[in-house]
Write a structure and sequence with these properties.
Strand content: under 5%
Largest sheet: none
Number of domains: 1
Radius of gyration: 14 Å
Number of helices: 3
Length: 89
């Protein structure tokens, strides 16, 4: 595997984590726009990306493969947890 292929693998591995980190805070602002008015969208995206990357790595280490449904469920819960912790609690 050359460097370009390795980079593509890394980007594709963290792609779902970054996607969820962008989508969940954005959709949460549509429903709870008053409650989330005081919280920075960028702050929620950054924290969600960090926690989602950790969930992706944990899923790979615990389950032995990438793309398991348990890992994707963890991404949803981590993203929702960040939105709740930073703005809705």
């Amino acid at each position: 595997m050359d460097v370009w292929s390795g980079l593509i693998h890394i980007v594709n591995f963290f792609g779902p984590a970054l996607g969820m980190a962008l989508i969940v805070p954005s959709l949460a602002r549509l429903f709870w726009w008053k409650a989330l008015k005081s919280v920075s969208w960028w702050r929620q995206v950054k924290w969600a990306a960090v926690f989602n990357a950790a969930v992706s790595l944990a899923g790979l280490l615990l389950l032995g493969r990438d793309g398991a449904m348990w890992t994707y469920m963890g991404l949803v819960l981590a993203s929702a947890g960040v939105v709740w912790w930073t703005g809705l609690r």
